[in-house]
Design a protein that fits this description.
This protein has 12 helices and 8 strands. It is an alpha/beta fold.
Length: 315
C-alpha cells in the first residue's frame, strides 16, 4: 500500500503530539493546579493532530496504535476511563452526566490525569452538557408556571438521574402535576428517586428501552412537555425519525412542546472523544434536524458554546 506524503506528515505530527503530551509529566510541575492550562494546551494539540491524521486519510487503526500510550495515560482519570470501558454498557451514561454536572475531579491530585480531567471539566464540551441540562430545567419550570386550567404533565425520555428535574423548586409544583421518567438503565432511575426529594411524590418511573416503553408511556400521557435528554446523539436518522414520530403522534398533547438536543456538526472535540474516550456522537446541522420534522413548527437554536443544537417543536 502506498502511503501518501500528507499521511506520513500527519503521522509524524501526531506522534510528536503524543510524545509532547506524555512529556508533561516530566516537564511541568503537576503539583501546581495552574498547570492545568499547560496540560490542557497539549491535550488540545493532541486532539487537533488526531483529527488532522484522520482527515489526511490515515487509517483509524494506525491512529489508535499511535495514540495508545496517551489513551492509557488518560485512563488514569476515572472520568475518561469510564467512557473507554463503557462501565454501564453504553456511552454517555448517567454517572458521567452526574460527574460533569458536579464539575468533579476523581483523579489523584498532582497527576497528569488530574490536569486532563480538570481541563475537560473547564472545556466547552462539558459546559454544553451542563447548558443542555439547565435549558431543560427552564423548559420544565416554564410549563409548570404557565397559566393553567388543570394539572400539567412532563415526560423525560433518557432521563438518566433527572438532573434537570432536580433543579425544579418543589414550590412551583401543584396538586395533580405529574413527571414521568424513562431510561434504559434502572440504576439511573433509582438514583433519580433517591435525589428527587419531595418531587418523588409527583414522579412515576418507566424503565426500559424507549421504543419498547411507548405503550406504557402513552397510557400515562398525553404530556404538556416531552424532553429527550441527549438520546439523539446516538440515534441514526431512521431511529430518530421513528422516535420523533412516536413522540409527536402518541405522547404529546395538542399545544404541547417537544424538545430534544443534539451535537452540532463541526464539534472540535470529536477526535479526542472518539480515540481517547471511545465516545462517538452523531452530529447534525440545522437542515438535518429539520429533515426529521417535515411540516412541523420547529425552532432550532444553539447553546452558548455552539456545540449543541436545541430543538423545540410546537405540537
Amino acid at each position: 500500500m502506498t502511503v501518501l506524503p500528507q499521511s506520513m506528515d500527519a503521522l509524524h505530527r501526531l506522534s510528536d503530539a503524543v510524545d509532547g503530551f506524555l512529556r508533561s509529566e516530566k516537564e511541568f510541575n503537576l503539583g501546581d493546579p495552574a498547570t492545568q492550562m499547560l496540560v490542557g494546551g497539549r491535550f488540545r494539540t493532541l486532539g487537533t493532530q488526531i483529527g488532522a491524521a484522520a482527515l489526511a486519510g490515515v487509517p483509524d487503526e494506525d491512529i489508535a496504535a499511535i495514540v495508545q500510550p496517551a489513551r492509557s495515560a488518560c485512563a488514569r482519570s476515572p472520568f475518561m476511563r469510564s467512557e473507554q470501558e463503557w462501565a454501564r454498557g453504553y456511552p454517555g451514561d448517567h454517572q458521567l452526566v452526574e460527574h460533569v454536572m458536579a464539575q468533579a475531579n476523581g483523579a489523584a491530585p498532582g497527576t497528569l490525569a488530574w490536569h486532563v480531567e480538570a481541563s475537560l471539566q473547564h472545556s466547552a464540551i462539558t459546559q454544553q452538557l451542563r447548558n443542555r441540562v439547565m435549558h431543560q430545567a427552564r423548559l420544565i419550570s416554564d410549563v409548570l408556571t404557565a397559566p393553567r386550567n388543570g394539572p400539567h404533565s412532563v415526560l423525560l425520555i433518557a432521563s438518566g438521574a433527572a438532573p434537570d428535574l432536580r433543579l425544579i423548586p418543589p414550590g412551583i409544583v401543584r396538586p395533580g402535576d405529574r413527571f414521568v421518567l424513562t431510561d434504559v438503565d434502572p440504576d439511573a432511575l433509582s438514583l433519580a428517586q433517591k435525589r428527587l426529594g419531595l418531587l418523588n411524590d409527583f414522579t412515576t418511573v418507566v424503565p426500559g428501552n424507549v421504543f419498547r416503553a411507548l405503550g406504557p408511556l402513552a397510557e400515562l400521557g398525553p404530556f404538556d412537555l416531552v424532553v429527550v435528554n441527549g438520546l439523539y446523539d446516538y440515534l441514526n436518522d431512521r431511529a430518530a425519525v421513528r422516535l420523533t414520530e412516536a413522540v409527536l403522534t402518541r405522547l404529546c398533547r395538542p399545544g404541547s412542546t417537544f424538545y430534544f438536543s443534539c451535537t452540532a456538526v463541526g464539534n472540535p472535540f470529536r477526535w479526542p472523544l472518539e480515540f481517547l474516550m471511545e465516545w462517538s456522537l452523531i452530529e447534525r446541522d440545522e437542515a438535518a434536524v429539520r429533515a426529521l420534522l417535515p411540516g412541523r413548527n420547529v425552532s432550532v437554536g444553539a447553546d452558548p458554546t455552539g456545540l449543541a443544537l436545541l430543538t423545540h417543536v410546537r405540537v
